[in-house]
C-alpha cells in the first residue's frame, strides 16, 4: 500500500465541480452534526454507478448519502445505530407527495389552532433539567402539537397510502424545531445556554412562537419532496454495523459512500440529547448511556473497562496502542476498540460490495494526547486484508458549513485540520 496524498487527483477535480452545483433542500430537513456535504455522495454516485444501482452507507446518520441516492435515482441501503437519526433519514427518503402534504398541513394547522387538549405534567417526557432547557409555554405548545398530530392521524385521516410515513413527517418536523424553540444557543454543537443567549434574553430580543415556527417548518419541508422523481427506494435499518447480518444484500452493492465516526472525537449522541429525550427515543439515563456505549469511537469508559487493552491483527496499529499505553491506558483502549470495530465494518463492506465496486470514505486523522492517529491509513491497511485495493486518496478542506463541528472537535483536543477522501476498489 502506498498511502500518499494525491494532489493531482482527478476525483478531487470532479468533487470540486460538484460542489458548485445547487443542492436538494431535503438536506436541511433536520440538524445533524457530522453530516456529509451532499457533493461527496453525489459526485461519486454519478461517477461510479448508473440509475437503479444500489448504494450502501454503514453509518448513514441523517441520510445524506441516502437523499443523494434518491435524487440520482439509485437505490439505497443504510445502517445507523441512533434511532432518532434513523427516523430522520427515513422521513427524508419517503416518497411523499408535496401537494398532498400541503393540504394535510392546512388540516393539521387548523386542528392545532382551534382544538384544546387537556394538559398534565404526565404528558411531559423525561428530560433532566427540563425547565432549564425549555420555557413553560414552549413545553406546553410542543405537547399540544404532538397531541394534535396524533388526533389528526387517528380521527381525521383515513386510509391514505404511506399514512405512517406522513405522520412521521409531522413528528420529525416537530423534532427539527425543538432546538430552535428551546433556550439553547443554536450556534452551539452541544446543547447549552450561552452568555449570548442570556444577554439576548435580558434585552428582550428572544421571541419564540412555537406554533408559527412549526407551520413555517412543515410548509417549507413539504416542498423538498418535489426533487424525487424516480422510482428508486431507500431502506434504512436501525442496527449496529459492527455486528449486523447483511446476508440480504450480499454481493449486491454497487457503491459505498460513508463517513465513519471519528475516533474519540465527537459525541454525536450528546449533540442530539434534547431531541432524543423530547421525542422519547430515549427515556432514561441508562438508555442514553447504553446507546452511547455502543457507538463507535465512544470515549466514555469506566475505569474497570480499560484495565485490559484490546489489540488488533495489525502490527502497526498495535505499536500505536503500545505507545499510548505508557501515556494513557484509557486512550490506548479506545484506539484498540475503535480499529477492531472498524475492521468488523470493513469486513461487512467487502461482503456486500460487488467485485470491482468502489468504496468512498471520508475520514480524518485524529489526535489523542497530542499523538497523531493515522485513521485513514490504518483503515486502508485493514481494507487491503479484506480484498480492497487503494485507488486514490486526496485532501478535502473542511468546509465552512461544518465549522461549528470543527470547533467542537477542537474542544475535544482532537485537532483535525482536513479530511481525506479515500477511494478503494474491491478486487475481482
Ligand atoms: C459521521 S456520522 C455520519 C453522518 C451522515 N453521513 C450524515 O450525513 O448524516 C457517523 C454516524 O455513525 C453512527 N454510528 C456510530 N456507531 C455506529 C454503529 N456501531 N453502528 C451504526 N452506526 C453507528 C453515528 O450515530 C453517526 O450517525
Description:
46% of the residues lie in helices and 13% in strands. The strands form two sheets. The protein has a seven-stranded mixed beta sheet, with helices on both faces. It is α/β, with parallel strands linked by helices. Helix 5 packs across helix 7, helix 5 packs antiparallel against helix 10 and helix 7 runs antiparallel to helix 8. S-adenosylmethionine binds next to strand 2.
Highlighted features:
428 residues, alpha/beta, seven-stranded mixed sheet, 46% helix, binds S-adenosylmethionine
E-strand count: 9
Largest sheet at a glance? 7 strands, mixed
Number of helical regions: 17
Principal-axis shape: globular
> Helicity range of the residues?
40-55%
Residue windows where pLDDT falls under 50 for at least 5 positions? 400-415
Strand order of the largest sheet: 3-2-1-4-5-9-8
Query: Which small-molecule ligands are present, each listed once?
Result: S-adenosylmethionine
Strand content: 5-15%
Helix and strand element order: HHEHEHHHHHHHEEHHHHHEEEHEHE
Mean pLDDT: 92
Radius of gyration: 22 Å
Q: What structural category characterises the helix and strand content?
A: alpha/beta
Distance between the termini: 18 Å
Map the helices and strands.
Blueprint: H1 10-19, H2 39-48, E1 54-57, H3 64-71, E2 75-80, H4 83-92, H5 98-114, H6 130-133, H7 136-156, H8 163-181, H9 195-202, H10 210-224, E3 234-238, E4 253-258, H11 268-271, H12 273-278, H13 285-294, H14 315-327, H15 329-352, E5 353-363, E6 366-368, E7 371-373, H16 375-385, E8 388-397, H17 403-411, E9 418-426
Parallel strand pairs: 1-2, 1-4, 2-3, 4-5
Antiparallel strand pairs: 5-9, 6-7, 8-9
This protein binds S-adenosylmethionine.
S-adenosylmethionine binds at residues 32, 34-36, 59, 61-62, 64, 79-82, 85, 240-242, 259, 261, 268, 294-296.
Amino acid at each position: 500500500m502506498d498511502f500518499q496524498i494525491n494532489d493531482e487527483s482527478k476525483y478531487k477535480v470532479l468533487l470540486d465541480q460538484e460542489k458548485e452545483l445547487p443542492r436538494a433542500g431535503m438536506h436541511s430537513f433536520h440538524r445533524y452534526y457530522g453530516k456529509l456535504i451532499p457533493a461527496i455522495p453525489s459526485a461519486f454516485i454519478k461517477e461510479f454507478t448508473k440509475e437503479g444501482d444500489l448504494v450502501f452507507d454503514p453509518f448513514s446518520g441523517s441520510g445524506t448519502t441516502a437523499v443523494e441516492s434518491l435524487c440520482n435515482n439509485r437505490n439505497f441501503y443504510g445502517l445507523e445505530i441512533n434511532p432518532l437519526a434513523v427516523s430522520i433519514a427515513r422521513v427524508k427518503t419517503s416518497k411523499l407527495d408535496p401537494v398532498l402534504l400541503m393540504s394535510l398541513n392546512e388540516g393539521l394547522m387548523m386542528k392545532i389552532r382551534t382544538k384544546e387538549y387537556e394538559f398534565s405534567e404526565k404528558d411531559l417526557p423525561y428530560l433532566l433539567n427540563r425547565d432549564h432547557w425549555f420555557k413553560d409555554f414552549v413545553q406546553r405548545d410542543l405537547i399540544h402539537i404532538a397531541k394534535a398530530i396524533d388526533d389528526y392521524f387517528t380521527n381525521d385521516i383515513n386510509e391514505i397510502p404511506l399514512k405512517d410515513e406522513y405522520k412521521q413527517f409531522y413528528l420529525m418536523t416537530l423534532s427539527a424545531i425543538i432546538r430552535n424553540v428551546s433556550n439553547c444557543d443554536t450556534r452551539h454543537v452541544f446543547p447549552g445556554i450561552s452568555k449570548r443567549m442570556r444577554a439576548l434574553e435580558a434585552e428582550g430580543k428572544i421571541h419564540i412562537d412555537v406554533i408559527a415556527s412549526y407551520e413555517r417548518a412543515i410548509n417549507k419541508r413539504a416542498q423538498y419532496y418535489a426533487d424525487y422523481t424516480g422510482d428508486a427506494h431507500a431502506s434504512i435499518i436501525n442496527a449496529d454495523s459492527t455486528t449486523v447480518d447483511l446476508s440480504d444484500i450480499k454481493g449486491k452493492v454497487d457503491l459505498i459512500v460513508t463517513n465513519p465516526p471519528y475516533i474519540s472525537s465527537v459525541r454525536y449522541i450528546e449533540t442530539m440529547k434534547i431531541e432524543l429525550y423530547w421525542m422519547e427515543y430515549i427515556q432514561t439515563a441508562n438508555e442514553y448511556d447504553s446507546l452511547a456505549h455502543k457507538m463507535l469511537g465512544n470515549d466514555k469508559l469506566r475505569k474497570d473497562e480499560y484495565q485490559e487493552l484490546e489489540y488488533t491483527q495489525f502490527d502497526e496499529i498495535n505499536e500505536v496502542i503500545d505507545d499510548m499505553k505508557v501515556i494513557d491506558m484509557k486512550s490506548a483502549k479506545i484506539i484498540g476498540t475503535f480499529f477492531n470495530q472498524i475492521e468488523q465494518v470493513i469486513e461487512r463492506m467487502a461482503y456486500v460490495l460487488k467485485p470491482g465496486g468502489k468504496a468512498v470514505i471520508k475520514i480524518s486523522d485524529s489526535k489523542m494526547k497530542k499523538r497523531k492517529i493515522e485513521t485513514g491509513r490504518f483503515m486502508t491497511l485493514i481494507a487491503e486484508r479484506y480484498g480492497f485495493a487503494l485507488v486514490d486518496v486526496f485532501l478535502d478542506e473542511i468546509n465552512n458549513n461544518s465549522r461549528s463541528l470543527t470547533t467542537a472537535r477542537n474542544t475535544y483536543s482532537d485537532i483535525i485540520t482536513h479530511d481525506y477522501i479515500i477511494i478503494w476498489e474491491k478486487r475481482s
